[in-house]
Amino acid sequence: MKNPHRPALLLALLLAATLPVQAQTAVPAAPKVPAKPASAPELALKIEHDITTLSADGITRNVRYAERLVRQGDQVWLARVLPPNAHEEAEHAAGAKSHKHMDVAAAARWVQRAPDGTLRVRLVNAHDKLAVDVPQADWANAGFDGQWASALHLLDPARVARMTPLARPAPTGSKWVESRNGQMTVRVLWDDKGQYPRRVESSHARGTSRSVTVATPEALPKPLPWDRLQGYAQKEYSDLLD
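The chain above was modelled as a monomer; its predicted structure follows.
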């Protein structure tokens, strides 16, 4: 059960950031983000994505969507922002009680880390009041690359630290860094205190693709999303496969 509605934009940027980098306008290296921060401050974000591609047949496609992220301690919750009545939940819920097709795009993704580092990934569907455990083999179908740092920070701070600092004005406590891979350029406005990317810009030199991701802090929701699950049924991911 693949998820075609959650483009792996941030994962692609992570991969780009691990490659050798070049900078057009660089400044002396700033203090790097620790490879393994002791902790990340609690945070709530609204994340807005704007992706434009130009195909070989001359057609321009634009995709826009938003998500909300909540992190506290060893838990991270990521949920799509859906307009009221814009999603046909009833269609996806059709079928016998023992075999329903979960709409992965509409489900929240809940990642927990145990003291020993073990990760647990669940999809949570508020409409059906259902929490589904996702085995590691199917994490990619839930939009998770298996890296706790990616879930916690959106971009792994260790990889951001290997990008090249830029002489580009940034808000206090933040910095711009850049990574290049062939004709692809990725620029990140990194918030050192909050440990997350405020803005990520990606572009191809030929103009065939461009993306912008903007993360805006919000107040932590009360109660926290994982504290609202009383009465939710628990299922295994395999129970939902077609």
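Residues 65 and 208 are 20 Å apart (CA to CA).
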